[in-house]
Amino acid sequence: MLRTLHRLLPAPDARRLVTLTIWLAAAATLHGVALGMAGILIAACLDAASDPTAWMIVLAGAVIAFVVAQWVAQMVAFRVGSSTARALHLRLGEQLAELPLGWFTGTRQAHIIDLATTGVPQTMSYPAILLRPALTALVTPVAAALTLALLDWRFTLAILGMTAVAFSASRVSARLARTVDARRHTVSAEATRRILEYADRQPLIRTDQRPEDNDDLDHALDAVHTAAGRSAGTVIPGFVLFGLTLNALFAILIGLGVLWVVGASLSLPTLLGVLVVAARLVAVAQSGAELAAGLRLQAGIRDRLAAVLGTAPLPHLPDGPPPEPGGELVHVENVSFAYDDAPVIQEVSFTLPRRGLTALVGPSGSGKTTLVRLLARFWDPSAGKILLDGTDLRSLASEELASALAVVLQDDYLLEGTIGDNIRLGRPTASPQQVAAAVTEVGLDAFLAGLPDGLDTPVGPGGSRLSGGQRQRVCVARALLKAAPLTLMDEATSALDPENASLIADAATRLARTGSVLIIAHDLDTAARADQILVLDNGRIVQHGGPTVLASTPGRYRDLVRDHAGPRS
């Protein structure tokens, strides 16, 4: 566990953790030496033939050294604890910024929330509080046993053997705790996901309540309650086993000492001195085991944190030769993609011009959204390649790709701030006149005129204070303001009435005059405006051409047009 945390920390913080470990180990060793010396002093005081003066001086020196080391270690521990939490939060944030957007599923987002809000703060207690008793329980008995060799080497061997047995018993308890923690974390993350989903769907739930809206959340919370009960029922037997083991070992040590005294190979003062030390070691081990339980549970937190930090970001290919300018902006060549070995996109090839509107149409589940997200590099294709202006997407730095793209997604999301802040993200240097023009083009001007604060109106977390259609129009206005070489629109008109949908289609057409626009549209009236149409079915491009030609050609597009028109009266 210590090695895992050391590996997760940046070099300066890892060195601080090593320094702390050395101080704690030194304090635990001096603790054991002081206990051993106390046993020797007791034996000397009870033996009329011995002079305890020298042992008193040695014990006093060991106690002073122990107090100094313990004080320094504790001061270092609190500083290392706070720096560890800060370093892990920073590493987690940096890693999340590098992970592909497709990695962030609902379940993984719940795991991240749990790690950031609970896991990392709990990890702070590992160096600050829990590492000391853990090292004490492991190192102090060994140091005390070696010191007792000055009295009788047999007790040294006996205590070392018993320490090994007690350590094995604690490992059993640790495995039980780890199993419980993994199960508890799984159900807790699911409950977090359900709570977030329940909060996000409040506008719909309050107007169209379904029984399952509450049932799913209730089941998840019940699972957390059940897991908490099972954790107590599983961990407590481990503590009981460890306590019984310690008491049994202490009884065995007493029995051995009595046998040696009866056999005249051990003096009674020596036995009494050893038993005082052994009794103290039992208390040390029990105290360490109680606090180390938290350390064992934290092992699961560190494993999950290591799994996130160890997730490889999308690879970056070395820069190739400078691309030769061509007539096409995007070239997709034999691209395939699968979710968990389930094919979604299969051997897709097409090109997008530097200017023009391309519509991507097809039945639900045909892979349209996946294809758009591959173009935005949420994932990399499992086969084939995607070139942007002649350069493989995998060779572009994230800043280069971001500057070349404007994306309007179906599950639109706004940053917490004002409407104006979210629109200006497209071009922070835009003038008020340019922002106003974008607002007008997407039909937001009438809506803003009815708000006291206009563009300065807060959107709420994720844009929750706006309707779905208003959020989509803000995202389209942002794309208009950015005017990137490539604009990707995923169902940009899905939450709009016909009038506003027409405004968005007009905006896409204007964007297509200066750049390339790819729009996913179930609304074939929007597709009819396109310069070219890509028809996707079962993950494959089955038709490609202009809207007039495709509408008059037997095939999947004409079927979609007929279905869109509906039955004739």
Topology (SSEs and partners):
Layout lengths: L1 H7 L2 H36 L6 H46 L7 H42 L5 H48 L1 H6 L3 H52 L5 H42 L18 E12 L2 E12 L2 E6 L6 H8 L7 E6 L2 E2 L5 H7 E4 L10 H6 L7 H10 L3 H5 L18 H15 L3 E5 L7 H14 L4 E5 L3 H4 L4 E6 L2 E6 L1 H5 L4 H10 L4
Description:
- The chain contains 18 helices and 10 strands.
- A 6-stranded mixed β-sheet has the order 6-7-8-3-9-10, with helices on both faces. A 4-stranded antiparallel β-sheet has the order 2-1-4-5, with helices on one face.
- Helix 2 (11-46) runs antiparallel to helix 3 and helix 12 crosses helix 14 (468-482).
- 64% of the residues lie in helices and 11% in strands.
- The mean pLDDT is 82.
- It is α/β, with parallel strands linked by helices and 569 residues long.
- Strand 1 and strand 2 (342-353) form a beta hairpin.
- The protein has helices spanning 2-8, 11-46, 53-98, 106-147, 153-200, 202-207, 211-262, 268-309, 368-375, 398-404, 419-424, 432-441, 445-449, 468-482, 498-511, 524-527, 547-551, 556-565, and strands at residues 328-339, 342-353, 356-361, 383-388, 391-392, 405-408, 486-490, 516-520, 532-537, 540-545.
